[in-house]
Amino acid sequence: MTEPTRLGAFLRKSGAFLAVGGVAFVVDAVAFNVLVFGFSGNGPMYDQPVLAKTIAIVVATVVTYVGNRYWTFGTRTLQRRFSRYVIFIALNLAAILIQLGCLAFSRYVLGFEGIVADNIAGTLVGQALATIFRFFTYDRWVFPDDQAQAARTALESA
Questions:
Q1: Any idea of the CA torsion for 8, 146, 132, 105, to the nearest 10 degrees?
Q2: Of 1, 8, 33, 157, which residue is the least packed, with the fewest Cβ within 10 Å?
Q3: What is the largest CA-CA distance in the chain?
Q4: Quick one: CA dihedral 42, 59, 17, 142, positive or negative?
Protein backbone atom coordinates (compact mmCIF):
# COMPACT_ATOMS: atom_id res chain seq x y z
CA MET A 1 0.00 0.00 0.00
CA THR A 2 1.44 3.40 -0.95
CA GLU A 3 1.92 6.18 1.59
CA PRO A 4 -1.00 8.35 0.31
CA THR A 5 -3.26 5.29 0.39
CA ARG A 6 -2.18 4.46 3.96
CA LEU A 7 -2.68 8.05 5.02
CA GLY A 8 -6.14 8.13 3.45
CA ALA A 9 -7.09 4.86 5.15
CA PHE A 10 -5.79 6.13 8.49
CA LEU A 11 -7.71 9.41 8.14
CA ARG A 12 -10.93 7.58 7.19
CA LYS A 13 -10.58 5.18 10.10
CA SER A 14 -9.72 8.02 12.50
CA GLY A 15 -12.65 10.12 11.31
CA ALA A 16 -15.10 7.24 11.67
CA PHE A 17 -13.71 6.40 15.11
CA LEU A 18 -14.09 10.02 16.23
CA ALA A 19 -17.63 10.22 14.84
CA VAL A 20 -18.63 7.07 16.72
CA GLY A 21 -16.86 8.44 19.78
CA GLY A 22 -18.77 11.70 19.42
CA VAL A 23 -22.08 9.87 19.52
CA ALA A 24 -20.88 7.85 22.53
CA PHE A 25 -19.69 11.06 24.19
CA VAL A 26 -23.20 12.52 23.94
CA VAL A 27 -24.76 9.28 25.24
CA ASP A 28 -22.30 9.21 28.16
CA ALA A 29 -22.74 12.90 29.01
CA VAL A 30 -26.55 12.86 28.84
CA ALA A 31 -26.88 9.63 30.85
CA PHE A 32 -24.42 10.82 33.51
CA ASN A 33 -25.98 14.25 33.88
CA VAL A 34 -29.52 12.90 34.08
CA LEU A 35 -28.50 10.34 36.70
CA VAL A 36 -26.49 12.74 38.86
CA PHE A 37 -28.07 16.13 38.31
CA GLY A 38 -31.49 15.25 36.89
CA PHE A 39 -33.53 18.11 35.53
CA SER A 40 -33.60 20.17 38.73
CA GLY A 41 -30.05 19.89 40.09
CA ASN A 42 -30.34 16.71 42.14
CA GLY A 43 -30.76 13.50 40.20
CA PRO A 44 -31.46 10.04 41.61
CA MET A 45 -27.73 9.31 41.93
CA TYR A 46 -26.48 12.73 43.10
CA ASP A 47 -24.49 11.17 45.94
CA GLN A 48 -23.15 8.35 43.75
CA PRO A 49 -21.39 10.04 40.82
CA VAL A 50 -18.91 7.21 40.25
CA LEU A 51 -21.69 4.62 40.01
CA ALA A 52 -23.67 6.95 37.72
CA LYS A 53 -20.59 7.42 35.53
CA THR A 54 -20.10 3.66 35.38
CA ILE A 55 -23.67 3.16 34.15
CA ALA A 56 -23.29 5.98 31.60
CA ILE A 57 -20.02 4.55 30.28
CA VAL A 58 -21.45 1.04 29.95
CA VAL A 59 -24.37 2.36 27.89
CA ALA A 60 -21.99 4.43 25.73
CA THR A 61 -19.69 1.40 25.32
CA VAL A 62 -22.48 -0.54 23.63
CA VAL A 63 -22.80 2.35 21.17
CA THR A 64 -19.05 2.35 20.51
CA TYR A 65 -18.92 -1.38 19.93
CA VAL A 66 -21.70 -1.36 17.36
CA GLY A 67 -20.43 1.78 15.62
CA ASN A 68 -16.81 0.72 15.50
CA ARG A 69 -17.47 -2.88 14.55
CA TYR A 70 -19.83 -2.12 11.72
CA TRP A 71 -18.52 1.24 10.50
CA THR A 72 -14.98 2.13 11.60
CA PHE A 73 -13.63 -1.41 11.24
CA GLY A 74 -16.51 -2.82 9.18
CA THR A 75 -14.36 -3.87 6.22
CA ARG A 76 -12.10 -6.08 8.32
CA THR A 77 -12.37 -9.83 8.34
CA LEU A 78 -12.62 -11.03 11.92
CA GLN A 79 -12.39 -14.53 13.31
CA ARG A 80 -12.70 -15.91 16.86
CA ARG A 81 -15.60 -13.61 17.73
CA PHE A 82 -16.01 -14.78 21.33
CA SER A 83 -12.41 -13.97 22.19
CA ARG A 84 -12.84 -10.54 20.62
CA TYR A 85 -15.75 -9.86 22.99
CA VAL A 86 -13.58 -10.85 25.94
CA ILE A 87 -10.76 -8.60 24.73
CA PHE A 88 -13.23 -5.77 24.08
CA ILE A 89 -14.65 -6.10 27.60
CA ALA A 90 -11.19 -6.23 29.22
CA LEU A 91 -9.94 -3.17 27.34
CA ASN A 92 -13.14 -1.28 28.10
CA LEU A 93 -12.79 -2.09 31.78
CA ALA A 94 -9.37 -0.43 31.62
CA ALA A 95 -10.86 2.54 29.74
CA ILE A 96 -13.67 2.79 32.30
CA LEU A 97 -11.07 2.89 35.08
CA ILE A 98 -9.34 5.76 33.28
CA GLN A 99 -12.58 7.77 33.18
CA LEU A 100 -13.64 6.88 36.70
CA GLY A 101 -10.15 7.66 37.97
CA CYS A 102 -10.37 11.18 36.57
CA LEU A 103 -13.81 11.72 38.13
CA ALA A 104 -12.88 10.18 41.49
CA PHE A 105 -9.61 12.15 41.66
CA SER A 106 -11.45 15.39 40.99
CA ARG A 107 -14.27 14.64 43.44
CA TYR A 108 -12.49 12.90 46.29
CA VAL A 109 -8.88 14.13 46.15
CA LEU A 110 -9.23 17.67 44.83
CA GLY A 111 -12.65 18.21 46.40
CA PHE A 112 -14.30 19.56 43.25
CA GLU A 113 -17.94 18.69 42.77
CA GLY A 114 -20.85 19.96 40.81
CA ILE A 115 -22.02 19.83 37.25
CA VAL A 116 -19.05 21.73 35.76
CA ALA A 117 -16.30 19.97 37.74
CA ASP A 118 -17.78 16.50 37.25
CA ASN A 119 -18.23 17.02 33.52
CA ILE A 120 -14.74 18.41 33.03
CA ALA A 121 -13.09 15.61 34.98
CA GLY A 122 -15.21 12.60 34.08
CA THR A 123 -16.69 13.49 30.74
CA LEU A 124 -14.11 15.71 29.02
CA VAL A 125 -10.71 14.76 30.44
CA GLY A 126 -11.57 11.17 31.34
CA GLN A 127 -13.28 10.41 28.07
CA ALA A 128 -10.52 12.06 26.01
CA LEU A 129 -7.87 9.88 27.66
CA ALA A 130 -10.05 6.77 27.41
CA THR A 131 -10.76 7.48 23.72
CA ILE A 132 -7.05 7.68 22.89
CA PHE A 133 -6.53 4.38 24.74
CA ARG A 134 -9.47 2.76 22.91
CA PHE A 135 -8.35 3.95 19.45
CA PHE A 136 -5.00 2.20 19.64
CA THR A 137 -6.19 -0.91 21.47
CA TYR A 138 -9.29 -1.50 19.32
CA ASP A 139 -7.21 -1.24 16.14
CA ARG A 140 -4.63 -3.71 17.37
CA TRP A 141 -6.55 -6.21 19.51
CA VAL A 142 -10.31 -5.88 19.17
CA PHE A 143 -10.78 -5.34 15.43
CA PRO A 144 -7.50 -6.40 13.78
CA ASP A 145 -7.67 -7.27 10.11
CA ASP A 146 -7.25 -11.04 10.25
CA GLN A 147 -7.09 -11.36 6.47
CA ALA A 148 -4.30 -8.77 6.16
CA GLN A 149 -2.42 -10.39 9.06
CA ALA A 150 -2.69 -13.81 7.40
CA ALA A 151 -1.34 -12.36 4.13
CA ARG A 152 1.63 -10.74 5.96
CA THR A 153 2.37 -13.99 7.79
CA ALA A 154 2.28 -15.93 4.52
CA LEU A 155 4.72 -13.47 2.90
CA GLU A 156 7.09 -13.61 5.89
CA SER A 157 7.16 -17.41 5.91
CA ALA A 158 7.70 -17.67 2.14
A1: 170
A2: 157
A3: 67
A4: positive
Whether the pTM exceeds 0.70: the reply is yes
C-beta atoms surrounding 130 within 10 Å: 24
CA-CA distances (angstroms) from residue 59 to 28, 64, 152, 155? 7, 9, 36, 41
48: containing domain: 3-157
- 49-93 pLDDT, tens digit per residue, is 999 999 999 999 999 999 998 888 888 877 767 888 899 899 999
